[in-house]
Amino acid sequence: MTAITRFAPSPTGYLHLGHAASALFCAKQAGLDGRFLLRIEDIDQTRCRPEFLTAIYEDLAWLGLRWEDPVRIQSDHFADYQNVLDRLTEMGLLYPCFCTRKDIQAEVARIGNAPHGPDGALYPGTCRHCSATERAEWVEAGESYALRLDMDGAIKQAGPELVWFDRAAGKQIATPQIFGDVVLARKDTPTSYHLSVTHDDHLQGVTLVTRGQDLFFASHLHRLLQELLGYDVPEYHHHGLLTGADGKRFAKRDKSKTLRSMREDGMTPHQVSELTQLT
Fold first, then answer.
1. In this structure, are strands 170-173 and 163-166 parallel, antiparallel, or unpaired?
2. Helices 193-203 and 78-90 meet at what angle, rounded to 10?
3. For the residues 101-106, what does the mean pLDDT come to?
């Protein structure tokens, strides 16, 4: 089977050495006979900027990478993600949550010893038990809300043991309950990373998802969404993260490690490539 991989940056800053490592790794995994895709994940319209999008194309081309056209730009496809949300709503698996961060923190503190997941304390389910009338009144009043996945209901509908495979870690049994009732969209942001990336990987026929180990646990949730929506299940490879001398992983705010600054300092694509070996 032809390997199809993708590199999916967000235009919220200039690409750094870690991005270069991930992009080159993805292209290598596709090989000469495979397909390497570029996807722009710009659902956060408040942080994404056009100059960073232009820089992504320039930096990747400078590295010698070539990708297929057209590039999928997520902000052009919000209607697609709304259709997915509508499907999950029809399945009875989404509910509006009107809690603010302050509300949630107060409730978690009141409960004490609240269960925690990869993203911190799990949502305590405050709005899960609101009546349809209450929800409709709040929506009509213009209250801000998030759309949360009813995790217990989703796992029940998905059925027994869900499995996914990571090339580095082997067979994995999905445990999406570690996220609790996760947010899949907000009133002002019509999709989440979890929803959009799962949908797009299926739509684009991605056969191997390569991403950093910091997103390893997200794959448990994505496997659940794949099962609920009837999506194909790719293989995964969660690679190590590049870090600086201080042991911290590279970040977009670290301007000295951006590809743009390296290029301006006279480094060649080959020299950058030699600094980006991942496993």
1. antiparallel
2. 100
3. 91
Question: Could you give the CA distance from residue 279 to residue 271 in angstroms, rounded to a whole number?
Answer: 18
pTM here is 0.94
pLDDT in tens, 248-263: 777 666 665 799 999 9
Residue type at position 258: T
Phi, psi dihedral angles at 237 (to 5 degrees): -140, 110
Instruction: Report the Cα 43 to chain-centroid distance in Å.
Output: 10
In whole angstroms, how far apart are CA 5 and each of 54, 104, 162?
A: 22, 38, 23
Q: What is the DSSP letter of 258?
A: B
Taking 3-state DSSP, the helix, strand and coil percentages for the chain, each rounded to the nearest 5, stand at 45, 20, 40
Q: Give residue-wise pLDDT tens across range 121-177.
A: 899 999 998 998 999 899 889 899 999 999 999 999 999 899 999 999 999 999 999
Residue 144: HSE in the Cβ half-sphere, 13 Å Cα cutoff: 6
Please state, in angstroms and rounded to a whole number, the distance separating the CA atoms of residues 42 and 73: 7
Which residues touch 267 (CB under 8 Å, ≥6 apart)? none
46 Cβ contact list (under 8 Å, min separation 6) = none
- Provide the H-helix boundaries in the chain: 17-30, 50-62, 78-90, 101-111, 132-140, 151-158, 193-203, 218-229, 259-264, 269-274
Please give the C-alpha separations between residue 185 and each of 8, 12, 109, 142, 216, in angstroms, as whole numbers. Answer: 19, 19, 25, 16, 21
